[in-house]
Amino acid sequence: MAELILTTNPGIEDITAEEARAKLGAEIVSVKEGLGRVIVRVRDEYLEHIRLLGSVHRAHLLLARGSICPEASCLDTVRSIVAESGAVDFLVPTGSFAVRVNRVGSHEYRSLDVARVAGDAVIAAAVEKRGWRPRVDLDYPSTIIHIDVIEREVLVSIELGGELSWHRRGYRVYDHPAALKPTLAYAMIMLSGARDGDHLVDPMCGGGTVAIEAAYMFEDSRLTCIDRNPRHIAGARLNARAALVHRRIRFLVGDARRLSSLVGEADVLVSNPPYGIRLGSPRQVRRVYREFLREATKVFRKSITIITPEYVYAKRVLEENGWKIVHERRVAHGNLYPHIIVAAP
What's the CA dihedral at 58, 62, 64, 66 to 10 degrees? Predict the structure, then answer.
């Protein structure tokens, strides 16, 4: 069995845990809510399938863990745990390494201090056990050693699959200025209760992320991607073509406030409506939300799922139109903390 740290978007750790359990038969060791960390155990033969997880940003092979105090003297604990972790077994004489640190909590030492001590420990262990000194390369390392210091716990792990986050799907040819992370799109689709065969619509689809992720998840669903901006629809079509799912998605230029004239009836809405930063006036943003959501309650039969910082107002509009909020959660999206809300008739 291998023990892994799965990183994800803060706020959807439970979805990552359930996905790992369902797809990999994983045993859940720890879910660090709000920190985007899920620790699991999986059988070795499933390691090659880790990248199939739609809600995961990265995976680290956990080598060692231990307790640590917040005082500066406890940097010696980091040194000891790293030296005994076996991290040097993942280094080769012709390669290079770097240490990346994620620190959460109040400590007398900084992340740079942890990285320095951990790097020294790796070099010393390699010289002692292997007889050669590994090369440090902070920009393009061949091996990345992660140190997570979370409150009073330290974890040492090795990056699997390179440093580029897996949420940066290769299909994003067109980069929408307010693009939704595919991992969040995956989580929203799961929370919406959508099932294969449902007609799923994103009426403010931007670069098409929700529809593309839904195409990966479902085989028989009708998928509709709508945006009032023809440039975004052209970009969404390019992204879907790069993802090899463009024939599965219907693309329409249209106003989300006129949904009934565009799609008639549908099952599930999943969308990332504009946050209003570019629109300026909160009053203007709320007018768009009010008209859009009123129309949506007439069109959709099963659920409406959106991510928005205007969640208080959005909930009020949905409830005024006879829908009930069945789920709500706060997530991190860039430097903002919007809420995902799910409503049902």
Answer: 60
Q: How far is CA 144 from CA 4, 9, 69, 138, 198, in A?
A: 15, 21, 25, 9, 42
Distance set, CA 51 to CA 36, 104, 161, 242, 297 (Å): 17, 26, 8, 18, 36
Q: How do beta strands 324-330 and 339-344 pair?
A: antiparallel
In this structure, the number of other CB atoms found within 10 A of the CB of residue 283 comes to: 9
Domain edges within the chain: 2-160, 182-344
Supply the pLDDT for residue 182: 94
Beta strand pairing call for 2-7 and 37-42: antiparallel
Contact (Cβ atoms closer than 8 angstroms) between residue 17 and residue 38: yes
Q: How far apart are CA 323 and CA 343, in angstroms?
A: 6
Tell me if 2-160 shares its fold with 182-344.
no
pTM of the model: 0.90
CA 303/CA 342 separation, integer angstroms? 7
- pLDDT tens-digit series, residues 177-187: 888 999 999 99
Q: Do 138 and 39 form a contact (C-beta atoms < 8 A)?
A: no
Q: What is the CATH number of domain 2-160?
A: 3.30.2130.30
User: Under CATH, what is the fold of the domain 182-344?
Assistant: Rossmann fold (3.40.50)
What are the residue ranges in the chain where pLDDT is below 70? 162-168, 276-282
Sheet holding 339-344, edge to edge: 249-253, 222-227, 199-202, 266-271, 300-308, 339-344, 324-330
Residue 18 parent element (H or E): helix 13-24
Distance CA 218, CA 41 (A): 27
